[in-house]
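ok so for the tutorial part 2 we go from a plain amino acid sequence to predicted structure tokens. step 1 is just haveing the sequence, like this:
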Amino acid sequence: MEKEMYDVTIIGGGPIGLFAAFYGGMRQLKVKIIESLPQLGGQLTALYPEKYIYDVAGFPKVKAQDMVDQLVIQAEQFNPTVVLNQTVENLVKVNDEYFQIVSDKEIHYSKTVLITAGNGAFKPRKLNHENAKMYEGKNLHYFINDLEYFAKKEICILGGGDSAVDWALMMEPIAKKVNIIHRRDKFRAHEASVKNMEDSAINVFTTCNIVDINGNEDRIHSISIKKDNDEIVQLELDELITNYGFVSSLGPIKEWGLEFSKNSIVVDSKMRTNIEGVYSAGDIVTFDGKVKLIATGFSDAATAISSIKTYVDPKSRQQPQHSTTLFEKIKI
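step 2 — the prediction. this is what the tokens look like for a chain of 332 residues:
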């Protein structure tokens, strides 16, 4: 049985992978995306769908899920093949001509590979309490997919980073009460966000540690926190959200023979890795002057796709025409 060959297979269906798929269509490449999660969007969809993003050019603010939805629509104009719920385990270069991309379910075939896997696979840092696990999937949350679910409820949020503060600010207008508990005296979130939180109706508890979870077998009813003066305070709640950050792992990618520096793939100015035919873009890469933002990741993706175009078709140009001219030619 003949296997279908693609010009480029993108490993990672987050925002950078989606934009790369669109731009691959613009450069008239045959594109496939392989994503380990059951949906496109990467961490934005899985972890922060209701959070606002403020540092994408042209958008004063945009919800993460809304941005992902628009990126999907943009990419789908060129009908890339999308494979979900598959983890790529190995890359095998065959006769210096093409790659076998071995997933946990099948083998894919491609002339080039573009890795846009962000920070790799991720999982939340869990609440360290002997009874925490029994409340997961009930009213102990590590992910938030539906903001309205928390409307008119008493919420306790654990954490001091951007995620914890952002969720507190987003819930404050709709929740009955919002408490945020941080073990240190200063928050690690952006200064402007912390100032907005301090000016809001959110109850802020610093230098406090959670010491107990109180509830029955079905739900947590309250938590006990200890202040730095050893005073114990009990906070009643309807929902408990833990934002202690996430642990990410590049997993099998580290075994593919790529050059790494501080857990990032080393690329050159054309987004080429040390393996000919393998490119990378976004937060997973490093080069001199690299800034890890979604905005700069889009630029990486366009550069990588243009480099891939010249690799697949040496007669083509690295520098494409303007998008308006190019898009009109393709659509005609």
